[in-house]
Amino acid sequence: MARVHALALAAVALLCTVSVANAATTVTAFAVEGNWANSYWGTPDNVATKCGTTTNMFDPVGAECKACPTGYSVRPDGLECEATRTSGAIQIFGSGTTPYRTTLSCAPNAVSWDGTTCLTCDNTAANAVISGSTVAYTGTTGTATNGECVCAGAGTMIVEFDALGQRLKDGLGKPTKNCVTATEDPSAKGRAFQCPWSSTDATTMVQKTAGAGSTDQNLCTCSTHGSANCLSGQLSTAYSGAVATALSVTLSSSSYQISYTDLGASSSSVTATSAYLTSNLTAMAGDCYYYANRTACDSLTNMCVLTMYDTTSTACSMYSALVTLRKANVYHSTLSPSVGWSETMPWLFYDTTNDYLTRTDFASTASFKAPSDTASIANLVFVLSITTLSGQWLGFREVGSWLQLCGGREDDIEEWTRIGTNYYNDCTMSLAEVLTAARVFGTSADQAKETLFYDLYVQDLAGSAATASTWPEDLYPVPIKVTNIAVNSNAASTDDLYVRRFFMLDETAGVETWGSTAVGITYAATLEFSITLQSEDVTKMYAPVLTVTYAQRVPSYAYTTEESISFRTTYSDAGITFWSTWEDLMISIMVIFGVHWMTRVVRTSRRRQVRDQDTMALVSGICTAAGHVSAGFVVVLLMAGGYWFIFFKCQEDPYTMIPVDSDTNVKLFKELLVVAVSLASVSMAHTLYWQCNYDVFFLDWEKPRTTTTAGGKNTSTPVSAWRQFFIANEWNKIQSKRLTSRPLTLLFMILFLEGLNYKGLAVIEPTLNTDEYLYYQVQSVMLRYALGAGLMILIAIGQMVYKIVFYHNYVQSPMQQFIDLLATSNVSIVILDDECSGYYIHGRSQMAFADTSMAELCHQFRKEEEMQVGARGLVPAATTEKLAENQCFEMFITKELRMAYESKLLSRIKESVAVSSVGGGMFTRAMSRMNSNSWGNNNNNVNGYGGGYGNAGYGNAVGGGMVNRPSAIASDATIAAAEEISDIFKQLINFTEANAGSFVLERPFMDKFTDMPPESVSMMQGASPIFYHDFKMAFTRVLFYGIEWQLLIFDVLVFTAIDMEVTSFAIAAFCTWVVGMGVDVIRSTWGEINISRKSLIDQRFLI
C-alpha cells in the first residue's frame, strides 16, 4: 500500500511538473532589434545601428535581423541580401527551399541587373526596327569591370532588353548588353535602367521616354501613342506555367479574378478580372519561389489578402504552398508552440486559433491609473508593420491616432489605448468622404499610391522598463478576425479563421484595364479592438483581438445613403461569475415575491368569501402577479446595475470589466426591463380600475333639530346635506394626492444627471469622474439604469422620510386632517374595496350638533380641549388611549349584509347608470355595458378587482366609466334606498360599539404578518361583522397615498425603459412626467365619477 501511495504521489508530481513546464514554455512575443521609431514611410536608415553589424540585414517579413550568406552582402536599403556585384557573381535561382539561391561567377562577363544571369559586353553596333522607327544600339567597351559593362559614348545608358521585352543577344546568341542614347539618368541604386515599353496591340511597340521637363528624370511616362497600356514586364507563358507547376496550382482566368459582394448598387455583386493580379501574380510567385525574394513574397501574400483571404484562390494556394515548402526554417524559433512562420513568408493565417486566443503569456500587468513603476501599464501600445502592395516595407508605426477614418479631437483620439476605457468613434459619411479619409491611412504617400497592408502587434514589456534606444521592443502578435471571411460569418466561434494582415483601402485590385476606373473597391468600415482580462488573474490580459469588417462599393455609382464607419475598443472580463450568482438571486427573489403573491390570492378569496374562483378572480390573480413580477424585476435589475456601478466604477486596480450592451447577458437585462415595464403597466391599469370602482358612502350622524311652531307644535328640521358635500369634496381631493411629488423628483433627477453631469458616471470607464461626456465615450445601459433607478428611489425615499418624520408630525398630515374633519362634521365614511371587506372611518362627533353656528362649534371645541367630552373613537371606553381614540378600522362584513346592500342600493344605481347611458355614443354604451356586467348579483356577485401589491381584492365595479358625461340626478327611490342602507350600517355600528369587546379587535400577530381577514367571517354563515383596529391607515390603499411604492416603481420603470431606448435622461424625464400626468388625470377623473355615483352626490357638487 505504501508503494502504491508513493507511486501515486510521484505520478501527480510528474503531471504537475509537466503542466507547469508546458505553461512556462508558452512564448508568443518576440524581441525586435534596433530603434525603428523614425523609420516610417521610407528606407530605414543606418541599418548597422539596428542589427548591430553591417553584415546583418533586417528581414521585415519576420521582423528579425539575419546574417547574409557567404558571397552575399547587405543590400543598400538594409532589407535584403544580394550577390556581391564587385565579384562579378550572379544569383542562380533555386528549387524553392534552402539554400534559396547560390552564386556563380560571371567573370569576365557582366552581371544582369536582376543578378540572375551573365551577359557579354557587346562591342558591335546593332539596329532594331520598331514600327518603322530605328533605335540605335551602341556597343559597350571592353570586358566587364567589377561585373558591369561600360558605355563608350556620353549621354548613353546600358540596356539589356529589346523592344519586345526580350534580352538582347550578340551574334553568337548569348545574352548581351548594349548602350542606347537616352536622357534617363542612372538610378539612385547605381543601375542605369531602360523605361518599359508600351503597346496598343501585339505588333506595334513604342518605347516610353523620360518625362519631358520633369524635375525627376528617373520617371518614365507612357507614350501618347494611341491608347497604349504600359507593360509591366509580364513573364512568358512558359515561365508562368513553370511557376504554377512548381507550386501545384492550375492557372485559369479565375486565378486573376476578384469578387465584390453587397455593393448596394444597381448590381449587388460583380466579379472583376484584376489587371494587377494578371500582371503580377505569377511574377511575384516566381520571384518568391526561385529567388526567395522577400519583397515578392510579401506582394504575393498581399494578393492573397485582396481575395478576402479565400484559401481556395490561386494567390492563397501559392502562398500556402510556399509556406509548406519552407516550414523547415521558421522565424523566431523561440516561439512556443511554433506558429508556422516559414522563412521568407509573411505569417498570414493562424493554425491554432482557439488555443492562441486563450494563451496567458501576455505578460504586461494592467492598471487603471498611471503606474508609479514599470511593473504595470495604463496604456496599450499597438504597433503596425507596414508593407505596400508591391511588397516594399515602409517600417514600424505606433497605431495611436492612426486608422480612425472618423477623425476626432487631437486630445482624445488616442484615449482608446487607455486600459479599461471603452472607446466608440462612429460616424456616417458619403462614399467620397470615406475614400478621401481612407486614402490617408490606406495608400502610400508617394505617387504610386499603393495599397498599404498592416501586420498588427502590441508591445509587451512584461514589467521591464522601456529601452530608450530601442523601439519597438517585445512585440506580441495580435490576431485579426475579418468578418467577411465565410467561416467567420456563422454563429459558431470554434471554426473562426484569424489572420495577421489587413488593409484599410484597396482601389487597385478592382481595375480590369490599366487607366480605367475600378469595378469595385474595398474599405475597412469597422475596426474593433477587443481586450479581455484573464479569468485566473484580472490584472493580466489575453492577447488583444482586432475585428475588421470590410465594405465593398462601386466607385462610379451615385450612392444616396451614407456609409457607417466605426472604430471601437471594448474591454471584457473572462472570469465574470456574477451572472450565475445573479440568476440564482433572481430565482430566489422571484420565489419570495411568488409566495407573497400566493398569500394575496388567498387573502382575496377570503375577503370575497367565496370558495370557487371565477373569471374575475383569475384576472385579478394575473394582474396582481404582473405587479409582483415587475416589482421583483426592479429589485433584480437594480442589483445588477448596482453591482457593476460599485465594483466597476469604484475600482482602482483591475477587479472586473463591465460587459458592453451587445453582450448576451446585457441583452437579457434589457429584455427583463422591457418585460418589467410592460407588467407594471398592466398592474397599474388594474390598480386604477380597482381604485376607481370601490364602494363608498357617507353616514351622517347629525340628528334633526326639533323646533316649536307658533301653535306649539314640535317639528323636525331636515338635516343639511352640505356637510356630506363638503366631506365628499375633501375625499375627492385626496384621491390622487401622493406622498412624494413626481415633478419634484424629476426636477431633482435632471438637476443631478444633466445639470451636475452625474450622467457621466454611466461611461464605461473605471473612474467616478463626472466630466462632460465626450464623443468617443461609451455608456452602459446597466450603469444608466443604476443611476436613473437608484437616484429616483433615493430622491423619493428622501421625500418620504421628510413627509413622515417631519411634515406629518410638525406641519400637517393630510390623512389625519381628513379623519379629524370627519369627526368635526359628524360624518363617518364606509369604504368597501372588496365584496365583503373594506374600511370604516368613525366620524361620529361627541358634540350635540355639528350643523350649527360658529359660536356653538367653538364652544364644543373648547369642551373637547378641556377633556369634558369622551374620546372620538368607536370604543371610547377602551382601556388604553390608543384604542379609545382610534377612528380607523378594517371592516369585514357578512355575506347577508352584502346581499342586502346590493339588492337595496346598488341595483338601483345600476339602473340609473343604464338610463343615463341611453342615447350616448357607441363607446359610452360599451363602457356602460362593461360596468353593468361587472356588477354583483346575489351570491354570484362579481365585483371590481384591485389592491395593487398590498390589496389584491375585489370591490364592486359600478362607475368609473371612461367618459365624464353629465351626472344623472338620483331618483327618490334611490335616495330612499340609500337612506335605508345608511340606517342599516348605523345600526351595525351601534351594535358593534355596544359589543366592542367581541367585534372590535386587534389583529393577531400572524394576521398582521400575512394581512389575512378573520376566518370567522369568511367561513361561517350567519357570523357577525368584525372590525380590526387600523393604526396604519390601511384605508389609503384605495388612494394614491397608499400605493406610493407601486407608483414609484412604475415611474422608475417608465423612466429607465424610455432612457434605454433614447439614451437621454432629459427626454426620459419629460416622457415620464407626461405618462404620470395621464395616470393622475385618469385617477382623479374616474375617481370623481365613482364618488358621485356611489354616494349619490351629483357630480356638479364635486369641484
Itemize the secondary structure elements and their pairings.
Layout: H1 2-24, E1 30-31, H2 47-51, E2 56-59, E3 64-67, E4 72-74, E5 81-83, E6 89-93, E7 101-105, E8 110-111, E9 118-121, E10 126-130, E11 133-138, E12 140-145, E13 148-151, E14 156-159, E15 176-181, E16 197-199, E17 205-207, E18 209-210, E19 220-221, E20 229-230, H3 237-246, E21 257-260, E22 270-273, H4 275-291, H5 294-306, H6 314-325, H7 353-357, E23 365-366, E24 376-377, E25 382-388, E26 393-398, E27 423-429, H8 431-442, E28 452-459, E29 474-477, E30 480-482, E31 498-499, E32 501-503, E33 505-506, E34 521-533, E35 545-553, E36 563-573, H9 578-608, H10 615-649, H11 664-691, E37 695-700, E38 705-708, E39 714-717, H12 722-733, H13 742-755, H14 781-810, H15 814-825, E40 827-834, E41 837-841, H16 854-865, H17 881-885, E42 888-892, H18 895-917, H19 922-933, E43 944-945, E44 954-955, H20 972-994, H21 996-999, E45 1000-1001, H22 1005-1010, H23 1015-1019, E46 1026-1029, H24 1044-1062, H25 1065-1095
Parallel strand pairs: 9-15, 23-24, 30-35, 34-36, 45-46
Antiparallel strand pairs: 1-29, 2-3, 4-5, 6-7, 8-9, 10-11, 11-15, 12-13, 14-15, 16-17, 16-20, 18-19, 21-22, 25-26, 25-28, 27-36, 28-29, 28-32, 30-31, 33-34, 34-35, 37-40, 38-39, 40-41, 41-42, 42-46, 43-44
Helix pairs in contact: 3-4, 4-5, 4-6, 5-6, 9-10, 10-11, 10-14, 10-24, 11-24, 12-15, 13-14, 13-25, 14-24, 18-19, 18-20, 24-25
Transmembrane segments: 576-597, 618-648, 668-689, 744-764, 784-805, 1038-1058, 1064-1086
InterPro entries: Meckelin (IPR019170)
GO biological process, one term: cilium assembly
